[in-house]
């Protein structure tokens, strides 16, 4: 029996505070917490080995330890701008168990001295925003939010901030800009948000799932959490599995679980539909795994890094032999071109070029050299920008073409004139306008 | 719908302001503004409010939102064009958004989109039917990939109609038949209900006290609440020259560390050193017990764990 640390209340109607408390909810907000100093609370999370579940996998306790205390107000911003294609775990988590998120936020708030916290939810999730607001209202009425929580002298207010449709706002500095009422364009780091974030104050940006793991850790101890998973990737992780599997959905498993177990087990996805062709293991930005690689992959940060891909947000996209990888890559590249914020030239222009080349290839007008052109572009726009969006596009381009080259070549060869040199129309000033 | 390249007839200020400058909207604007330390930060929410009230965002509404949030109109316009969910043109009563991203693409989103275009006779790049009932738009990931291909009807996820309501049951994907079912449901609804009921675009605002110090806020700033942090992981080791070395971890806000040594049955302060120190040396026999009491601006913390001096090396 797998120990569940985040999804244990699924399907039990925990949206309602009475049900949630009957299931043991809010039991951490008591004397045990009030006797704990901020330093000890951060130490507890450091010892648990909890890592950020949003994508980067940065140790949460370490992030918290960078936040200065006793100066400017400290903000907690929950990143619920879940936009990475393939990821839908936070959406389900907020819908099923909003109070656990609030409880996790109180624990984090206690550790960092947060007075005001914001939950940044992407605009498309209005039903989840309504659920959250209803839960927050109940938590205020029960005295778990507001001033002087349960007589402890600690005060916390939580507001939901609705985004308005921009993938880039999932990047923490872009999210902060969006929260401040600007366009969601990423900022240069340093200064890191933990030191100077929202309104130039120390800001802790954590993913929904990260915060939802805190009540379990506080209740059962850091050592119990660290005992799960692998030594460097401790605890459990929620994976969102989509694509060609019999039962797509959200599954919580200990880190280090074999990928094929997640896909084949009766408890989880119940098998692949058709013959497996490849798996994207951690959201659209993570390089794809071929069948052979998928067979030996285990789902933890280190093992996937060794396969030159990443765990990311835990979004597993499965595709079978009948799916065209050219079409998939075209879909991804169009997405990144659309979502580029326009701030850095390599990304703004590069993702657009890549998108246009792929569209020509898909339309059956590809020429020899187009793929080399794509690879050269990807090489040029990765790691030359403020944020990792362009690199996130480069990864799939390099890996899809690298691992399924024959299929790409076959699509290019469909053009009867593929060997001819492409004639670029002479430049005429004004022709583009 | 964030970017609008075609010409849209813009209503005049006097046509829309009577709808916006009403107590029910203004009180919500005030509530939103006091949630943030500066009014500017409420801009996204106030734009949502304007869109909820008018159905879309005409330029005069953007100007109105800018004035409420104390930013320039051009700032507000820039923000409104950056985010794709602000509508720069009116849409049909049922705004259908079909996901075309990778998970949905793999499962046949293009076929569904083609079916939708054929059925409704409009383009999937924002076309609206002549009866103003449907607008169709292909969009990027909607964050419900487990149900792919997936669609949103206005603000709700819909892959099926269950018990006369739009629904997205777990694992149920949108198919051509289910799309037709949803369209039929929408047409029925249009016959029985004259217009869509208003829905709070910011998710059901409740009365909040606001951000401490913000305009109109009544909340108090945070005082000191947590106990003084103790020193953690106190350990004693023997150095090469036979001294006892104490190490520990202390919070950055610690001002003074009181090192206590057990003499007889009680601990007594052996030294008080700066909170920035990382180690402390002493001459002591094996088995001498040490503990540390920290002090910050708020007072003294609880005593740390007890560390015993080990035997001298080679002894």
For the sheet with most strands of chain B, the description reads: 5 strands, mixed
Number of strands of chain B: 15
Distance from first to last alpha carbon of chain A: 64 Å
CATH class of the largest domain in chain B: Mainly Alpha
Quaternary structure annotation? heterodimer
- Number of discrete domains of chain A: 3
Q: Could you state the order of secondary-structure elements of chain B as H and E?
A: HHHHHEHHEEEEEEHEEEEEEEE
**CATH architecture level-2 label of the largest domain in chain B:** Orthogonal Bundle
Overall shape of chain A: it is: globular
Question: Helix segment count of chain B?
Answer: 8
Shape of chain B: elongated
Strand order across the largest sheet of chain B: 2-3-1-4-5
Total number of helices of chain A: 19
The overall pLDDT of chain A, averaged over residues, is 94
Number of domains of chain B: 3
Briefly say what this structure is.
The complex is a heterodimer of chains A (433) and B (315). With 433 residues, chain A is of the alpha/beta class.
Core attributes:
heterodimer, A: about 425 residues, alpha/beta, Rossmann fold, Ubiquitin-like (UB roll), de novo design (two linked rop proteins), five-stranded mixed sheet, four-stranded parallel sheet, 19 helices, globular, B: about 325 residues, alpha+beta, Arc Repressor Mutant, subunit A, Glutaredoxin, Immunoglobulin-like, five-stranded antiparallel sheet, elongated
Could you explain the architecture of this structure?
- Chain A contains 19 helices and 11 strands.
- Chain A is an alpha/beta fold.
- Chain A folds into 3 domains: about 15-225, 3-Layer(aba) Sandwich (Rossmann fold), CATH 3.40.50.11540; about 235-320, Ubiquitin-like (UB roll); about 325-415, NADH-ubiquinone oxidoreductase 51kDa subunit, iron-sulphur binding domain (de novo design (two linked rop proteins), Up-down Bundle), CATH 1.20.1440.
- In chain A, the strands form 3 sheets. Chain A has a 5-stranded mixed sheet. Chain A has a 4-stranded parallel sheet with strand order 3-2-1-4, with helices on both faces. Chain A has a two-stranded antiparallel ribbon with strand order 7-10.
- The mean pLDDT of chain A is about 95.
- Chain B is an alpha+beta fold.
- Chain B folds into 3 domains: about 1-90 and about 195-225, Arc Repressor Mutant, subunit A (Orthogonal Bundle), CATH 1.10.10; about 95-195, Glutaredoxin, CATH 3.40.30; about 230-310, Immunoglobulin-like, CATH 2.60.40.10.
- Chain B contains 8 helices and 15 strands.
- In chain B, the strands form 4 sheets. A 5-stranded mixed sheet of chain B has the order 2-3-1-4-5, with helices on one face. In chain B, strands 10, 11, 13, 14 and 15 form a 5-stranded antiparallel sheet that branches.
- In chain B, strand 6 and strand 7 form a beta hairpin.
- The longest helix of chain B has 17 residues, at about 175-190.
- The relative contact order of chain B is 0.10.
- The model of chain B has no long low-confidence stretch (mean pLDDT about 90).
